[in-house]
Amino acid sequence: MPLSEEELRLLEQMERALVEEDPKFASTLRGTTLRQAARRRAMLAGLVFAGGIAVLMGGAISGYWQIGIVGFVIMLLSATIGLSALRGQNLSGQQRGAEAAAAAHPSGFGVIEGGRAHGRRHGRSRTSGSFMERVEERWRRRRNRGF
């Protein structure tokens, strides 16, 4: 007997909540850990990268520049996949929770933390004063701190 749409939706919400609360337990239930999957993807990307080098060199030796371009594209794509797998392996639990919350938002948009806002003073706008006034203000602050 198939599940209704509401039951499927509730099941997906429960699964998302489980992944947000305990990603390690959720990956254990799936049969593979997130770290193992990321490591496997990174190793596969490394092998494909080596294959891309071989295709690139084959194109250079044979004189067909189109084959060399294909080899370069293979290398570029595999490096991108490998780096994203390694970067995903290093995400902290807090970042994973923030990404899951942003993905769970109905509009698909979420708040992105980061940037340089944490170093600025809240009472001062970015465009206050001329460029030279801002540079002079920074210089005074550095001299007062003893740098």
Topology:
Elements: H1 5-21, H2 23-30, H3 34-62, H4 65-89, H5 93-104, H6 131-145
Helix pairs in contact: 1-2, 3-4
Keywords: Membrane, Transmembrane, Transmembrane helix
Protein name: DUF3040 domain-containing protein
Description:
This protein is an all-alpha fold. It has a domain at 5-106. The chain has helices at 5-21, 23-30, 34-62, 65-89, 93-104, 131-145.
Question: Quick summary of this structure?
Answer:
The chain is built from six helices and no strands. With 147 residues, it is an all-alpha fold.
Quaternary structure annotation: single chain
Percent strand equals under 5%
The parts where pLDDT drops under 50 for at least 5 residues are: none
Tally of separate helices:
6
Give the termini distance in whole angstroms: 72 Å
Order of helices and strands: HHHHHH
Question: Structural class of the helices, strands and pairings?
Answer: mainly alpha
Tell me about the biggest sheet? Answer: none
Spatial extent as radius of gyration: 25 Å
Instruction: Estimate the mean pLDDT confidence.
Output: 76
What coarse outline follows from CA principal-axis ratios?
flat
Number of strands: 0
Keywords: Membrane, Transmembrane, Transmembrane helix
Protein name: DUF3040 domain-containing protein
List keywords for this structure.
147 residues, 6 helices, flat
